[in-house]
Design brief:
Blueprint lengths: L2 H18 L7 H24 L8 E5 L7 E9 L12 E9 L4 E8 L11 E12 L2 E7 L3 E3 L13 H9 L9 H7 L1 E7 L10 E8 L10 E12 L10 E10 L5 E8 L7 E7 L10 E3 L4
Antiparallel strand pairs: 1-2, 2-3, 3-4, 4-5, 5-6, 5-7, 6-8, 8-9, 9-10, 10-11, 11-12, 12-13, 13-14
Length: about 300
């Protein structure tokens, strides 16, 4: 082989290696976690309004029921429309929220998604089992875990939220779990913590949210065969102020080789208040190293 051909072969191989290190980050896992958190926060805020007898938006109605041992119980029906959308989701459809209330500050809800699509996926996201919440320091604290998420069949059982008082208390005690402050820990926990600031109003339209946690809502694979995980730490968003992106906080994407524990690459993203639908990559490794310092487009509105 001539020297020219050898040099050419090395150049081609080098370019191929460089391409492998400049893979466009796949944000699907992070987007799923963010959109689901926005849904849970919005539905929880509405249910608190319903239990307190506050005015509901025109696309929501509440039916009171009787559950022995609880001060409040009922079913809230929500019709997401173009004029009354779920934050960071333009899809339309029916959502049903079933809840129990202790009459003071705490409750448990289940969310049933009829024809409303949260995470555009091959998996059928049907709803969420018991999600605890409590009011603390003027805000609503809530959480959900992957074990609560119903993918595929089984949503018919969500309409019957039947808990004993000890079971109810066990759900509320989940809120005492420590919140993650490290992205690697959050990505492996499959738990999302929410804080909802209702701004002293009954309208969910002016609520602001903060979420910390991560893992997978539904399995997302990268084009290179890796399995994607995500995390969010103190990720804050207020749809009334900015409907394009979170305005502060940190997010994380981890690409793990399927069937192994090999880290193919990860990125750390910083959200900002410019409300331009973008975020800043502050650290990138492995396949994503070419993204260091770049802006990425979110398209979450």
């Amino acid at each position: 082989m001539s020297l020219g051909l050898v040099v050419f072969a090395y150049l081609v191989a080098g370019c191929s290696k460089l391409d492998e290190l400049d893979e466009t980050p796949n944000l699907k896992s992070l987007e799923d976690g963010f959109r689901t958190s926005a849904l849970v926060g919005y539905c929880t805020s509405l249910m608190v309004s319903a239990f307190k007898g506050e005015t509901l938006p025109p696309n929501a109605s509440f039916s009171v029921s009787n559950k022995p041992g609880f001060s409040g119980a009922g079913t809230l029906t929500l019709q997401a429309t173009k004029t009354n959308p779920i934050p960071f989701n333009s899809n339309v459809g029916k959502i049903t929220i079933v809840g129990l209330w202790d009459g003071q500050k705490s409750g448990v809800v289940s969310i049933i998604l009829a024809d409303f699509d949260v995470i555009a996926s091959q998996f059928q996201f049907r709803g969420m089992h018991t999600l605890p919440f409590t009011e603390k320091n003027g805000k609503i604290e809530a959480l959900y875990a992957k074990q609560d998420i119903v993918i595929g069949e089984g949503s018919d059982t969500l309409l019957n939220l039947s808990l004993t008082n000890p079971q109810f208390n066990t759900e509320i005690n989940r809120l005492n779990s420590p919140q993650p402050t490290d992205v690697f820990i959050a990505a492996s926990q499959n738990v999302w913590f929410l804080s909802i600031d209702r701004k002293n109003t009954s309208s969910p339209s002016d609520d602001s949210y903060s979420v910390s946690g991560g893992g997978q809502i539904a399995e997302v694979r990268n084009s290179s065969g890796g399995v994607l995980y995500h995390a969010m730490i103190n990720t804050q968003f207020a749809p009334a102020t900015c409907a394009n992106n979170p305005t502060s906080g940190t997010a994380f994407i981890q690409n793990i080789q399927a069937g192994a524990t090999i880290d193919l690459g990860n990125i750390v993203i910083e959200f900002r208040s410019t409300c331009d639908g973008r975020a800043k990559v502050i650290v990138a490794t492995g396949k994503y190293i070419g993204s260091n310092g770049r802006d990425i487009i979110l398209n979450w509105n």
